[in-house]
Amino acid sequence: xxKFNLLFVTLCICGIQVFSQDAKLTEDWTKKPVIVTPGxxxxxxxxxxxxxxxxxxIANWEGRGGPAKxxxxxxxxxxxxxxDIVTKEKFGDCQLHVEFRTPxxxxxxxxxxxxxxxxxxxxxxxxxxxSYINETYYNGQAGAVYKQSAPLVNASRxxxxxxxxxxxxxxxxxAADGSLTKPASVTVxxxxxxxxxxxxxxxxxxxxxxxxxxAHGDMPLLLQDHGNxxxxxxxxxxxx
Length: 240
Ligand code: MG
Hints:
240 residues, Jelly Rolls, mainly beta
């Protein structure tokens, strides 16, 4: 029995090591995005669908298998360890505005500092991270299309400051047989600064291994619970 347990633990540890080596293969450390100091924020236009502006708007979101349980108060909602949340409504091509704030009290480093994520169609992540003087692989820092495209520059504000992403997203297109006819594309402004310029995704963003498209239609917007108490406010979307 003891031998069996030892073998099981050894296999688990080896498995974790192999998995983490696989993840390192897709880290990009070649060209560090230069630092740019950003300007100001934006309120929603008249035709926007408001996804979150007041605490009660948490009702526009759900968790896995039930209501969203993030802490919603006044004009913000906060990651609290209850898991990712998704919009009840599904979206395709869109213009999206999201404001986020990483904790002012800095804890951890690299991917462990102010990590969350804006997953368009629940599977294409624009990374949320405290990237103010915080080294990590460049295609994993704030504004990266995770593990695919590093931001053109680093427009991050200091920890504890509100920041904004303005995103234009075109959904992938698929033929009737499920094959890809047109990849998804994304343009991102971080605090008003262009950081992704019509980047064509090679598939859903993944932690390890090569991305691979699977045919899908409209999907909810997802905000990631990565275990750090990141806050969100002023989330709105326009269908294109
Ligand atoms: Mg993330």
